[in-house]
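Researcher: Going back to the complex we discussed earlier. I've cleaned up the inputs and rechecked each line, so this should be the final set. Can you rerun the prediction on the complete assembly and write out the structure?
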Amino acid sequence: MKRYLLQRLLFFLPTLWGALTLVFLLIHLVPGDPIEVMLGETASAADKEELRRSLGLDQPLMLQYQRFFTGVLSGDLGSSLYEQSRVSDLIRARLPATIELTLCAMAVAVAISFPVATFAAVNNGSWIDRGALLFSLLGLSLPNFWLGPLLMIVFAIQLGWTPVSGRGGLEHLLLPSLTLGVGMAAILIRMLRASLLQAINADYIRSARAKGLSEKAVWLKHTLRNALLPVITIVSLQFGSLLAGSIITETVFSWPGIGRLTVQAIQTRDYPLVQGCVLIIATSYLLVSLLTDIFYHLVDPRITYGK
Amino acid sequence: MESKPWFYIGLAILILLLVSALFAPVLAPYDPTRQNLDNDLRTSSKANPLGTDKLGRDILSRVLYGSRISLLVGGTTVVISLAIGLAIGSISGYFGGRADQWLMRLVDILMAFPGILLAIAFTAVLGPGLDHVILALCLIGWTSYARLVRGEILALREREFVQAARALGCKPGRVIARHLLPNLLSPLLIQATFGLAAAIIAEGSLSFLGLGVEPPTPSWGSMLNDGRQFLLVAPHLTTYPGIAIMVTVFGLNLVGDGLQDRLQAR
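Model: Rerun complete. Updated structure for the full complex:
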């Protein structure tokens, strides 16, 4: 276990370093002078110089790099150009909304995919199975920048069942979490169905049937339980993708989370805030992957690193 | 799912897409950028079968021309990503050693980001535009091809036919090009089909966020973004580009699934 943890951390740290370096370099990829891009050509030379100094862009690159790392490690992500507050404070204020949305989307995905996949696997080869696969393929083909407006037109505007946008009670969560969760549900249906079909053909299932267990017990106690392990990993890994997907969904539904903050920062060319948001989403993604791997290893010690 | 009929349905959708992209100037009733402010936000009519947008531009013409952008961005991204991935994956898999370690670490770092986040971050700093979108999508796109090629070459390089080629004095480039590459075509074709679908969705996402092609060029993502403000009064503005993108991606997924069943079963 110790050896695995050490190996996994040895993989995690350089990857995190690489991700942070990429985020640091973002502002330096701006074509031309980033200060001019942020403030516009009409800004006075004094304002430009002031911003250049406050962002540290007047320093040598290595020094900027060192300061960026020291700042990130101490939780200081710099200041927003327009919001008059620290990037870390802005992110902290928006993070709960994104976590709420992401967790609800995961719940929606699990609630859709588990019964559909189990039903499809039990009826393998039938029209139910084919329908489930078609449904999942459709789900994969629905970009959330269209599904969101579509759900909004039907359920909020035409039927008036839910609010159009914004954050509030449970009714506000319904459409955004459905929009974000459908893609993940589609992936889960395929994964879980395949996993169930693999498990149902295993020797221990034959033994369970041979000793006279009912079909229900075979499916619920033996097949589903064994098929769940790889699916749990996918669920956790998809958490990171949902975080990234929330950028679009939050924009569609004016959901006040990190995703919307990122888009607002991009629109106002508030690069320190863009850097902060990208950094938080990427780091969360990496951390969730790390925790998933460790959890997976705890549950199934046969899993080893890099084999 | 019986893949045969679905595969052909997917193929038919792709052919339709290709035809509408190639013959957009012939098929489109109007210039997609021609404005007519007296005729804005109209629903379907004889003159404008899919209605008009906020500037009175014909939606059918814009949807048809939008397929060009989707195919152009998707196709170029797939070709460039595949070329880079093939080169790096071959070097990594065939030669191994330090180069392999460094290249795969770079792949790990890039794959550690959710792809769309990196694409958004890159286009946010580079600025909107077709070339920047393609650049951003290629920067993230090549990694999956590199990993696939490396894995396949690792599995193949000790096989007898490769050893025989080496024993006959073939240089590494020739071994890779003549003996290994033909064996990689099936998995690469499958990956490229799904990659095209992913690139089309990514381009749509970027254009939807205002980071894709610049107006007035019609793109399905930017049409959806424009239509969002008029959901209450003119939902058809988002409906048609949305259907176009969904049907295209669905077709590609059907073809990808069908290819997977056919080619990998061999």
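Model: Worth noting: DSSP finds ten helices and no strands in chain B.
Researcher: Good, that matches what I expected from the previous run.
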